Amino acid sequence: MIAPIVAAGLEAAALILDARPPAQRCPVAIATPAGATVDGTKASGEDITVCARSELPGTRLPATIEGVAAVVLIEPGGPDDLECNPSFIARAGISGREPIPLARIGPIQIEGSIAPVGVVIAGRYVPGNVRWSDRTAVADADCIVGPGGLPQSSVRFVLGPPRAEATDVVLPFHRPSYGRTYARWRVGRYDLAVRFELEHRRTVLTASSTIAVAPILLGSVTGDTLDDEISWTVKRPVRRLTLGRPFVIGNVTIREPYARVSDYGRAANVRTINPDEIGADDILVSAKRSKPGRSRLVRVSHDDLARCVAITIDRRHRQMTLTC
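RESULT FIELD:
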């Protein structure tokens, strides 16, 4: 029997999205009453679940913004206001107030415009705002938005097939002033703002997050410096964070995180080692404590959620449920 993807406690009006790569998607499982006929087979005894013929929509949804057709990417950690590419703004003929600060990514300030708009998405109308700059906001779509910008109070992102061993862990919301949906998670005496971004392949910590967790998890910065795109096409230097203890957020284990070495603090105080110096039986390393910066952020990527079934974001009850 195939276990249902849709949780029993999920609201009927909730939006359910298939967040897996297209090659991994399968039809949604639905409950079928005993005695019903499904594909010519009559069920008997207990209720069963079968795969429906129609598939769940992906995370790129068709929408209408100010009467103009658009494709909008829905991200668990996306912004409450629509962030759109300048090409779409020009096509839709939208104008707004400028300049205003849109984001700060490390030392880089992004400025742009904001305008009120009417949006029809997931079959429902919702008033909102659209923000844009001269930079690209999202690839392979016109705009990006998070659950806070949708008309549904509950959004479920399906990440993988049902697993018998999966459990639910509920994380409280963390709502900073910059309008994105985070979970709150404590490591030692530090609260971290955890954002789930399925379009990224690296899990990345800001420098202040790295400084906070490194002494507790016996972490050390290792390897070469790479450029990692954060948002608005801005890339920041990152390095691998080697951990001697597991970095667990709820029921998710972060295996190979990276550190933004100079954003919101400096991770230079985290001891740097050469990977060749780590022996098979001696992998624990230490880091010096330092006063953390103001933004202890963790961006969790798709790859670290490989064993998860779903993320459910419930704005009404201000909680996020990881089913992993």
